[in-house]
């Protein structure tokens, strides 16, 4: 059964377009496709669009476009061309696993009866989908964590989590921004990549619909790449993929 868009008011300047009632890749692909379709129209009055797991938040100027007019613009391009969202960026993100960089790696391994190396192989052997950016600037929520290492969140959250941590929580994985924030997720490692930099032309490195793969690196490589990142090098590499 197809899911028709559901429109929810988000104050006098926001409209949420809900495209599904569960979190899955197919629904998120529709969100990304709708975001792309509306962005291509450059609708006067639309200020910002924020894709999430299963909905698209559209912020607008009510002096330039009404909520009903915006609703009609959404319906005019529904369903969006799914093929337009099938081309994506695949990022390779270097990660220093374990030790001080990944304080919970050994714990996660013990919970699942695995060695730390096996957890790293599983985590780094998967390809992840960026479902959304949220919680903090540049924080990327990822789907695709191998079921073998699904891990309930910490009973007691940390008040401060190291910047640019690589973590897991429940069925999800995440890439943290280069800022310290509270969290109950388990830390597997850290990356020299800065997913958010307000001084960059494009402040956010990752976007909904992107794919991510992780590449283990040594402590020396982490130090070298961190210095490069501090100098403005994105460090992470991306390739365009046609699904």
For the structure shown, list the relevant keywords.
243 residues, alpha+beta, Gyrase A, domain 2, Cyclophilin, 2 domains, seven-stranded mixed β-barrel, 5 helices, globular, PxpB, ATP binding, CT_C_D
How is the topology of this model organized?
Elements (H helix, E strand, L loop, with lengths): L5 E4 L4 E5 L6 H17 L4 E6 L3 E6 L6 H10 L10 E11 L7 H7 L4 H9 L3 E6 L6 E4 L14 E4 L3 E5 L2 E4 L5 E3 L2 E5 L20 E6 L2 H12 L6 E6 L1
Parallel strand pairs: 5-13
Antiparallel strand pairs: 1-2, 2-4, 3-4, 5-12, 5-14, 6-7, 6-13, 7-10, 8-11, 9-10, 9-12
Gyration radius from CA atoms, angstroms: 19 Å
Biggest sheet record: 7 strands, mixed, barrel
CATH superfamily heading of the largest domain: Cyclophilin-like
Q: Classify the oligomer.
A: single chain
Residue share in helix: 10-25%
Strand order of the largest sheet: 5-12-9-10-7-6-13
* Percentage of residues in DSSP E strands: 25-35%
Q: Which stretches are low in confidence, meaning pLDDT under 50 for 5 or more residues running?
A: none
Could you name the CATH class of the largest domain? Mainly Beta
- Secondary-structure element order, as H and E? EEHEEHEHHEEEEEEEEHE
Helix/sheet category: alpha+beta
Morphology call: globular
Instruction: Please count the helical segments.
Output: 5
Termini separation = 24 Å
Number of strands: 14
Structural commentary:
The chain is globular. It has helices spanning 25-41, 67-76, 105-111, 116-124, 219-230, and strands at residues 6-9, 14-18, 46-51, 55-60, 87-97, 128-133, 140-143, 158-161, 165-169, 172-175, 181-183, 186-190, 211-216, 237-242. The strands form three sheets. It has a seven-stranded mixed β-barrel with strand order 5-12-9-10-7-6-13. A four-stranded antiparallel beta sheet has the order 1-2-4-3, with helices on one face. The protein has a two-stranded antiparallel ribbon with strand order 8-11. The protein is of the alpha+beta class and 243 residues long. It is built from five helices and 14 strands. It is 23% helix and 31% strand. The protein folds into two domains: 6-85, Gyrase A, domain 2 (2-Layer Sandwich); 87-242, Cyclophilin.
């Amino acid at each position: 059964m197809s899911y028709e868009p559901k429109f929810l008011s988000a104050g006098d300047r926001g409209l949420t377009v809900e495209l599904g009632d569960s979190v899955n890749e197919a629904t998120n692909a529709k969100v990304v496709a709708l975001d792309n379709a509306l962005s291509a129209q450059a609708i006067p009055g639309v200020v910002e669009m924020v894709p999430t797991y299963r909905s698209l938040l559209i912020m607008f100027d009510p002096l330039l476009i009404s909520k009903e007019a915006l609703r009609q613009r959404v319906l005019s391009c529904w369903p969006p061309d799914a093929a337009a969202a099938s081309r994506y960026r695949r990022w390779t993100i270097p990660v220093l696993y374990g030790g001080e960089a990944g304080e919970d790696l050994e714990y996660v391994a013990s919970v699942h009866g695995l060695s730390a190396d096996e957890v790293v192989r599983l985590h780094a052997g998967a390809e992840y989908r960026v479902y959304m950016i949220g919680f903090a600037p540049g924080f990327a929520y990822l789907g695709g964590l191998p079921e073998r290492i699904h891990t309930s969140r910490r009973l007691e959250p940390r008040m401060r989590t190291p910047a640019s941590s690589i973590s897991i929580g429940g069925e999800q994985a995440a890439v943290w921004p280069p800022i310290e924030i509270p969290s109950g997720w388990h830390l597997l490692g850290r990356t020299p990549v800065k997913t958010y930099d307000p001084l960059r032309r494009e402040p956010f490195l990752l976007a909904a619909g992107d794919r991510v793969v992780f590449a283990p690196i040594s402590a020396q490589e982490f130090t070298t790449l961190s210095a490069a990142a501090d100098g403005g090098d994105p460090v992470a590499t991306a390739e365009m993929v046609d699904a």
